[in-house]
Specification:
Two copies of one chain form a homodimer. The first copy, chain A, is an alpha+beta fold and 230 residues long. Helix content of chain A is 28%, strand content 26%. In chain A, strands 2, 3, 4, 5, 6, 7 and 8 form a seven-stranded mixed sheet that branches. In chain A, a hairpin with a 4-residue loop joins β2 (14-24) and β3. Chain A is elongated. The mean pLDDT of chain A is 92. Chains A and B meet through β1 and β6 of A and β1 and β6 of B. β1 of chain A pairs antiparallel with β1 (6-8) of chain B. Chain B binds a DNA duplex (30 and 30 nucleotides) through residues 162-164, 179-182, 184-186, 189, 203-209, 229.
Amino acid sequence: MDEKKYCYKYPHPSVTTDCVIFGFDGTRLQVLLVKRGIEPYKGRWAFPGGFLKMDESCEEGALRELREETGLTGAYIEQFHAFSDPHRDPRERVITIAYYALVKIQEVQGGDDAERAEWFALDEVPPLAFDHDRILREAMKRLRERIHFEPVGFELLPEKFTMKQLQNLYEAILDVHFDRRNFTKKMLHFNILNQLDETTRPTPKREAFLYSFNVESYNELKQKGFRLEF
Amino acid sequence: MDEKKYCYKYPHPSVTTDCVIFGFDGTRLQVLLVKRGIEPYKGRWAFPGGFLKMDESCEEGALRELREETGLTGAYIEQFHAFSDPHRDPRERVITIAYYALVKIQEVQGGDDAERAEWFALDEVPPLAFDHDRILREAMKRLRERIHFEPVGFELLPEKFTMKQLQNLYEAILDVHFDRRNFTKKMLHFNILNQLDETTRPTPKREAFLYSFNVESYNELKQKGFRLEF
DNA sequence: ATTTTTCGTGTATTTTTTACACAAAAAGTG
DNA sequence: CACTTTTTGTGTAAAAAATACACGAAAAAT
């Protein structure tokens, strides 16, 4: 029989963490999904996540699940919402604390013990398990706000990137279009980019300058309470 | 004996909601605290909150606790963070989903069955129970961000208010100072204010125009994805 | 009547945003 | 090799927004 040895005077909900993992392929935003191997929603795609242990904070739990299910370690994660509809899980009362992670997509491919994990472009995400469709919408909404206060590119782009990639990223997240020249001008004015001497090696057409983020300048700027305007 | 009849195969944390209630007295931001009547932290001030029931969402739970502990009904609340340090409550593992409420302070005074509730100006908040000091800091941080996307004055100011009150509110939340003339100009350009024919009745010195928010214009503007800039 | 406080208002200057076009680099084509 | 195609770097003029700033009028207190 399954022994139920943890007893309480009042009913307690289960608590899970789920993690929406964002990556950027240079053109489009992507999310990493895992295929569920068990009921409910067996065979459906979902965000990696699972039950919280009693001796870990939600952040620790989210990072652990990330590692276990996708092989990702030390990702940048940020909590964005707790989902608590009493019937969001058909089995029992489960509250999930949702995080989003920003990862460099090219550092994730391969090396994962989770073959069940797969990247999907945002506009090609299949119907998800549980209320994960809603979770994704909320994650996007939060990311869109976040980008005004933090240069999320730090986490999503490779060390070296072109101005076009950076612009593509902002356009993908905010779903807008910028004039190429004005975007460059504005971005450089923030003074948080290093223009490198190198250019793109496997050049597509004409080779472009590479940039990297200047963490020191960014932190300095942030101290003064600035905002990235777009 | 205290019967423990709710049993699970794995340990479950307790889940509570807590609510940081912001009000504005025309000059300063205030928060509503309740004095704890029981251990732990008996006699310390804390945010109203309590255990979540199994058949209610966190939002419902937060609103219920608000009503029970302060008499407030139908407040505007917004979830902002789940606090989950394994030792944040000395008794047992408790995860709290924290909300902030924005209320019209003048509609709250009196009428409360909770005499234990009291308003404190932000810079006069006493040391709080549990990790509520941290919760307050996070709530402020979130409110400060929120104000760039939503006119929080809708909820914090009375129906009719003066431009000075509105300016004081923005200054209190953002902790900055604006030029009176420039603030007025900018605010009116958003076109979400109705200038009323009335002026302040119990006039302090010279009477000032009263304004109200124009919800329709605001919603229109919001649809287009605008941002309040300050 | 005088003083004190708060209110409403406008303009000139600076800064930021926006719109916009051409020449050079590389690759692909035949 | 010439030619075409795609992508890159770059600057300027016009419009809009942000800023700095001062005085006269209304009301209350004395």
